[in-house]
Write a structure and sequence with these properties.
The complex is a heterodimer of chains A (about 160) and B (about 725). Chain A has about 160 residues and is of the alpha+beta class. Chain B folds into 3 domains: about 200 residues, 2-Layer Sandwich (Aldehyde Oxidoreductase, domain 4); about 150 residues, Aldehyde Oxidoreductase, domain 4; about 325 residues, Aldehyde oxidase/xanthine dehydrogenase, molybdopterin binding domain (Aldehyde Oxidoreductase, domain 4), CATH 3.30.365. Chain B has a 7-stranded mixed beta sheet with strand order 10-11-8-18-15-16-17, sandwiched between helices. Classes of the chains: A alpha+beta (about 160), B alpha+beta (about 725). At the A-B interface, helix 1, helix 2, helix 3, helix 4 and helix 5 of A face helix 18 of B.
Chain lengths: ~160, ~725
Amino acid sequence: MTTFFLNGKQVQVEDDPSTPLLWVLRDSLGITGTKYGCGMALCGACTVHLDGKAIRSCVAPVSRVEGKHVTTIEGLSDNLSHPLQKAWIELDVPQCGYCQSGQIMSAAVLLNENPEPTDKDIDEAMSGNICRCGTYPRIRKAIHRAAKMSGERRTK
Amino acid sequence: MSAPAMVSRRAFLRTSAAVGGGLLVTWHVPFRPEGGEALAADKDTYAINAFVRIGSDESVTVIAAHSEMGQGAYTSLPMLLNEELEADWAKIRVEAAPVDKVYNHPVFGIQMTGGSTTSPAEWTRYRKMGAVARVMLVEAAAKQWGVDSTSCHVAKGVVIHEKTNRRATYGQLANAAAQLTAPADVPLKEPKNFTLIGKPMKRLDTPSKTNGTAKFGLDVMIPGMLTAVVLRPPVFGGKVRKLDGSEALKIPGVKVVEQVPSGVAIVAEKFWAAKQGRDKLNVEWDLGPNAGISTEQMLQDFAQASQKPGNIAKKVGDPAGALKSAAKTITATYDVPYLAHAMMEPLNCVVDLRADSCEIWTGTQFETVDRANAARVAGLPPEKVKINTTLLGGGFGRRANPASDFVVEAVHVAKVAKAPVKVVWTRDDDLKGGWYRPMWHDRFSAGLDASGEPVSWMHTIVGQSIAEGTPFEPMMVKNGVDVASVEGAADTLYGIPNLQVDLHTPKIGVPVQWWRSVGHSHTGFSVEAFLDEVAHAGGKDPYELRRKLLAKQPRMLAVLELAAQKAKWGSKLPPGVAQGIATHFSFDSYVAQVVEASVENNGTVHVHRVVCAVDCGMVINPDTVKAQMEGGIIFGLTAALKTEITLKNGRVEQTNFHDYQILRMFESPEIEVHIIPSTESPTGVGEPGVPPVAPALTNAIFAATGKRVRRLPIRASDLA
């Protein structure tokens, strides 16, 4: 039995403690916005936040999150109001869309830690997330756009 | 490609009636989770025809006959339809079509998505369906009001009779309109009057792809569903000799371990148990005839084969004679590897198999083929097999499998699972699973005249046929030549007076398939790289030589000149940075690209900028065209710089993204896309961005370093 907080709500699961968080989210809790891409922390499609830090849920045993706070794409906002979601929509970033949950969750941690990232900062923070459709140029622009929106919000 | 043919009205209306109304229940894709507007599924909705339903709540549901795999079909198809329907764009939703003849591809005659044909093929049909529906809605209003329909007009989903100041919404009229007979024919707008087509419309699927609500095949869950993985043979065509599943069955949650034709199925309550069970299997394999296949040997065999001409695909003039009498001759060979599609969403398929029915949920590009193959395995007539097409987490051709491999296997697994089951492929399964872009060897000889211009061009191609042995063989293979093997080479636009393209088609036990841009993915590279060699051998600027050879190809000439102009071809660049240029005609579209690249002393390649010009006829959504060019360029750069599938002792050597590396953000160049305004019919955009980028890059590398890259992927060791 593992107990943790998922998007602010306490949940309990009975999966074996060694089960990767990704499969607990998807198969046991039915929370499918977090995606499977490689199972080896190589592609970033499964990125979620653990106490505010980006982790690859495909290699994180659920025991690791006991008592902690996990945020998935579903918990980023409940009305598409997060600046990254707004910027993603404004610039029509996604193509197939499969990797985008992970992209956005990685970008969200970047912006939390570095509200005005440079291109180089973005390259470094996002290098763990693969997009096979090739949306990188738009992801980069959208992160800058979201940073600008957040900045405007802060100064208001 | 012939002009898109309309389905006959009678056939259309017949099928429309058959699939209309309450029967038209499909997998639900909630596109507007943020809007607070209830989805129409439970409200009264009326099928005006098979392509559009209107709800009394004013919702307008466009039925998409093509899958959404990132290319924007779920936005472009509604744009086409609503250009004529003139409903309120904010009310538009999209649903995947069920499998039905009425949704067959207007050109290919089966229900499918591929060949960069969605927009070109649906250009007329979706507009007509929208126009027919609008006329019926207006007619319904005119009847109610007792006025002449020609005195009414529509605006944003409202029919208006100005004289009497009467208005009725589409939602109010839908029921009455659905009872009317469809008009025999309706005129379509002149392009100058378009209000949607040609505008950069926001994609309808973006909101759902930014909050986790977009549903892909892997996200499907149905009551009582189990999850399975399959252990497939280590060598293509291998068979199970001895199976010991006892250890696997000890894993909590594992329910069934059984042989299926493709290997051993491990069925469990959830994925993780199935995966762990698979790791515990003990299987002895009969490896079969393919255990000796090796990439090294194939490279030698292909090179050997190319010494002799193969089956003639194209012959113009007297290429051999012109080569003999040429002032100068050059020869070069090029090699490209097997490539996996490696869509981010690995293959998966959910099957609910019952005694008298079979329901399938999967992201597919090939509904008609999959349904026929699934029906055969299930022992049911095709009409008893229902396919729910989900969103595709990438396709690139892999989800249009002629054998429906991932669907057929899932039906077999459902038989042994004796319960609804989802079959999941791991990344390892995906990369080792075959159906690759074929490995190719290209040998060229060119003869140059005294002025340095090419007068003879001889091109021998060696590689497997994609169509051979599939139902597509009669259509695609003519006189021993698979058209997909020589496309982009035999139909080159360059005006070289003596030309021959011939083909060897070795039979190798590695399954191959169409991969984004198909044959063009190798001919684009080899033809454009060798033309660069020809230019240098003749002392010509590669851009100027291309201009000269394209003198009779105004559309390609225009994209070439636009790309060169926007990239400032020939201008001074930072030290170490050089430009390369390439063009390619594919899927009826014209593309030219200029790459700026540099190479470090250790051979590391940096791609700084790509400038792309495209003529794809009339544009439906310019932002989508740009996105497809951007994506195609990055897809092509991954092939140029990163990926290869190799085999040793019949075994695929790559297993995951550490040894099959996809281009990442920090390696991704700045990309500029320029679209040529056009009044020609729309042509493909999903694939044509791919072929020119590899040669433009290797040509830039030559300009920067003097080193000619003749095999992909580019290796630092070849450039250090």
